[in-house]
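Task: sequence design from structure.
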């Protein structure tokens, strides 16, 4: 799966950037519409992390401020599988 760098969600243009300044694998900044991915991740892990953070972005956009990380992990993993295997 290719890591995309821009997408539209909830009327906003979101940006996906690599970052050397975060310690977690990824971070979703809903106030700035930015997803940060740790720069040194392998391509597959970076793609899976993007899917995880995308689920956070969707939940924030849907008005949910509290996210269950187990649910976000499960949905992110499933989304990654679909996008990676899509033809």
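Answer:
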């Amino acid at each position: 799966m290719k890591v995309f760098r821009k997408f539209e969600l909830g009327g906003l243009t979101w940006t996906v950037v690599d970052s050397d300044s975060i310690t977690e694998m990824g971070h979703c900044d809903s106030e700035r519409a930015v997803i940060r991915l740790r720069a040194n991740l392998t391509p597959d892990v970076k793609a899976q992390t993007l899917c995880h953070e995308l689920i956070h972005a969707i939940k924030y956009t849907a008005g949910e401020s509290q996210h269950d990380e187990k649910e976000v992990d499960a949905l992110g993993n499933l989304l990654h599988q679909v996008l990676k295997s899509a033809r």
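The chain has two helices and four strands.
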